[in-house]
Specification:
heterotrimer, A: 193 residues, Four Helix Bundle (Hemerythrin (Met), subunit A), 67% helix, C: alpha+beta, three-stranded antiparallel beta sheet, 6 helices, 6 strands, elongated
């Protein structure tokens, strides 16, 4: 168990560092996908199959593709090579060490270390489903509402503006716009506008 | 020692062929202790690695002959009897072609793309129950695993398209990914319907729920229920789109975009892409067979003496023939028509199918005379009315009329 | 209804598939080179020289008038006249070609040589399987390769060949009739002009 954990953790860390340090943005995105896969492997090793496969399905199958699309659609030219390590790296490392120290102290001196370990839950899908529908039904519904709102928002953003700018589809048979009976004027207007 | 080895091997194959449980156990006892885990894995994988690529070779032959006969011509008929050695000739051609990589291509990503496509596709076979006791791993969340590895293939198509540094490749890759993520949703929702009724994500469990016969004649497959029929049709259409097959083959159609994301691939890498596409098609068909067509169950009670994997393969081949038939019939969809179809038609129908499955499930206690017919009628109405209405609404007022020509004079 | 067209289309393709096994009109492939589509009568490819009878060189209709060589637009015909003469179908002595070469890599099948030949000696062939591994020499056909019999001409262009034969036969008949009429007239004048009868000499019996 230790060796496999070490290998998976090493893979995850290396690909995460690579994701930060590659010059080419798409290479970074692909390394990030490998990091997600490493995380999924860790979940599977911890005995949580549902979360592991869901991690692959959602992160690699959707989030990584979203990142890649975003890179493609917003960068029209080749990225200018910027220095990988920024100028103020000493200050960066100092801040990181400070934050890490504060967090570690906070966690170690809290009451988490003294609490009893709860009973190990059954990680079967059946059990997850039951818990979602009985104990955690309110968060489930809230997430559903959030997803619906996001989908409606996406549709609204992508929809054409209603009104004058809507393009008229010419009718194939008669060559005339079918949304307006006064065809000659409308044709002139659409040509001129 | 060697004799024991081969005896154990033949016994294992015989046990597997006659549907007996756990054929590997005795053979593994013959092997030394240290290699037993590896041997167990290899013994599970080897049949898949032999059967499905062979099926791929046979399918390429079948497709070319079938399409040829549909199009009033012979298919290949020179290479062997009836052209049966054509896949061998094709394989030799692919192997001996020069592997050209464009100078400005991103070499590492270009190399890894076919590999990254093939690995998840092969992984998907690990959860398909090909026979009564023949599933390599029985994962509790089998369907989730299947779709997870299916989603990983989309990233490799992007890798292929982007690394070629070719505008056709990039455009083709983006279209391919848009198509695949659009059709994933109706695919998964129609699967969720089955999961809802079967009560488990495990494919072995879903198959075992479809055993038995109604009145000893009609098998209890899910395709013989109204929601199952609709779900099956939705699943088939969505799986055609997922594997980039006609009529959804905009990403790789030659007359459209050269070859889309495959433009800069030649030789063996192209063969790997081709193999991965067909293996993906088989995996999807296998899933359709498992979810809707009763997996490895026989269709009639007196036919149960035929081994279970034969039924699975027969149903798989029937679905593949259906795909070939559709390919020869339907013209290619334009990319905006394709996406409109997915989001505006398939998704609502898949959601309505969920409702129908629920209605079917909760009207099961009805037991007055002719209850089944009333339930069928109710479910059919719930599906058919939105189908017709959506169909009318989405095709606008476009009717197929006689084309009139206006000539310039 | 949505999907109706697809179902009808699938029925049609199924009918095509099953029909291709038993209905010849649904499988229209001609498996070349084992089967060939019979050539049409008006087909033409490259020229050939017609000979009558059985000896190609003696029966060659060509009299080396060199009209086709002059009229050929890409100038692909090369003729060298022979000094010896040979009799043609009427019996008159005519020239003959020592060399008659056509370069079929240049020939554009315009048929002008056929149209201008006064002796019906050069006609269009329909043979298209002329692949050769020698790009230059192999595509220069000499008179032995170009000479094909009148029977062959009948086989590939039946109506044209019959027409040509009828015309040639009519000409031959006219020439024969003229020759016969001449001979008769000569014999008649020889008989009509009375020789001065010598006394006691017997008159030559007719």
């Amino acid at each position: 168990m230790q060796i496999s954990f070490a290998i998976i953790a090493a893979l995850t860390l290396v690909s995460a560092i690579a994701a930060m340090s590659f010059r080419n943005l798409v290479h970074c995105a692909l390394s990030l996908a490998i990091t997600f896969a490493g995380l999924a492997a860790l979940y599977l090793q911890l005995g949580a199959p549902f979360v592991g496969w869901a991690q692959i399905l959602v992160y690699i199958g959707a989030v990584a593709i979203l990142i890649v699309f975003a890179i493609l659609l917003t960068r029209s030219s080749e990225s200018t090579p910027q220095p990988v390590i920024s100028r103020s790296w000493i200050a960066g490392i100092a801040v990181a060490v400070l934050v890490f120290g504060v967090l570690t102290k906070a966690i170690l001196s809290s009451s988490i270390g003294q609490r009893e370990l709860p009973a190990k839950p059954e990680p079967t899908v059946h059990e997850i489903g039951t818990q979602l529908m009985t104990r955690y039904v309110l968060p489930l519904e809230a997430v559903g509402l959030l997803l619906t709102a996001a989908a409606i928002g996406a549709v609204i953003i992508a929809m054409q503006e209603p009104g004058g700018k809507k393009s008229k589809v010419p009718n194939i048979q008669t060559g005339q716009s079918r949304t307006n009976p006064h065809n000659e004027e409308e044709k002139l207007k659409t040509i001129l506008s | 020692m060697i004799g024991e080895f081969f005896k154990g091997l033949f016994l294992m194959i015989w046990k597997a062929a006659t549907d007996q449980p756990d054929p590997k156990a005795d053979f593994l006892q013959v092997l030394p202790h240290a290699i037993r885990p590896v041997a167990a894995v290899v013994l599970s994988i080897t049949p898949i690695m032999i059967v499905f690529p062979t099926l791929f070779a046979i399918t390429t032959w079948l497709e070319r002959k079938g399409l040829g006969r549909i199009q009033n011509r012979f298919g290949p008929n020179r290479v062997g009897p009836c052209g049966l050695f054509q896949p061998v000739a094709d394989g030799l051609k692919m192997l001996t072609k020069e592997d050209i990589v464009p100078r400005s291509a991103d070499k590492v990503v270009h190399f890894l793309a076919p590999v990254a496509l093939l690995i998840p596709t092969l992984l998907a076979y690990a959860v398909l129950p090909c026979g009564r006791n023949m599933v390599p791993i029985n994962i509790d969340a089998g369907i989730l695993f299947f779709f997870a590895v299916g989603a990983s293939t989309e990233l490799s198509i992007f890798m292929a398209g982007w690394s070629s540094r070719n505008k056709y490749s990039l455009l083709g890759a983006m279209r391919a990914i848009a198509q695949m993520i659009s059709y994933e949703i109706p695919l998964i929702i129609s699967t969720v319907t089955v999961v809802m009724i079967a009560g488990s994500l495990s494919l072995v469990e879903i198959v075992s729920r479809q055993e038995g016969y109604i009145f000893d004649l009609v098998p209890r497959w899910y395709v013989f229920t109204p929601w199952g029929l609709a779900g099956f049709v939705i699943f088939l259409i969505a799986s055609l789109a997922e594997s980039n097959r006609s009529p959804f083959d905009i990403p790789e159609a030659e007359s459209e975009i050269i070859a889309g994301h495959l433009t800069e691939y030649s030789g063996f890498k192209y063969a790997l892409f081709f193999l991965a596409e067909y293996l993906g098609m088989f995996a999807m068909s296998g899933l359709a067979v498992t979810l809707f067509l009763g997996g490895w169950h026989a269709p009639l009670p007196f036919l149960e003496w035929v081994p279970s994997y034969v039924w699975f393969l027969a149903k798989l081949v029937a679905l593949v023939c259906l795909f070939i038939w559709i390919r020869g019939t339907v013209p290619r969809l334009r990319v905006d028509q394709l996406l409109n179809f997915a989001w505006k038609f398939m998704l609502p129908m898949a959601l309505i199918n969920l409702v129908v499955a629920a209605v079917w499930h909760f009207t099961a206690p009805w037991s007055f005379a002719g209850a089944i017919l009333w339930r069928w009628l109710l479910c059919a109405v719930i599906i058919a009315v939105p189908y017709v209405w959506l169909g009318r609404a989405l095709s606008g007022d476009k009717k197929l009329t006689q084309r009139t020509y206006r000539y310039a004079d | 209804m949505l999907g109706e067209g697809i179902i009808k289309g699938m029925a049609e393709t199924a009918r095509n598939f099953i029909g291709s096994y038993h209905d010849p009109s649904r499988l229209t492939t001609v498996e070349y080179p084992e089967e060939k589509i019979p050539a049409k009568e008006n087909a033409r490819n490259f020229p050939f020289l017609v000979f009558d009878g059985s000896d190609p060189m003696k029966g060659l209709r060509c009299v080396a008038c060199q009209i086709c060589e002059k009229e050929c637009p890409p100038q692909c015909i090369y003729i060298v006249k022979d000094t010896a003469k040979k009799p043609d179908y009427i019996g008159k002595l005519q020239f003959q070609p020592k060399t008659f070469d056509i370069d079929i890599s240049v020939c554009m099948s315009c048929q002008i040589c056929v149209e201008v030949c006064p002796f019906e000696a050069i006609k269009m062939d329909t043979n298209f399987e002329l692949s050769n591994s020698d790009r230059f020499g192999g595509l220069l056909l000499d008179k032995h390769e170009l000479a094909k019999s009148n029977d062959y001409y009948h086989k590939i262009h039946a109506t044209e060949a019959s027409e040509v034969d009828a015309r040639l036969a009519a000409e031959k008949a006219k020439v024969d009739a003229k020759a016969k009429a001449d001979a008769e007239a000569k014999a008649r004048t020889a008989a009509a002009v009375p020789k001065p009868a010598l006394h006691g000499q017997p008159v030559l019996a007719k």
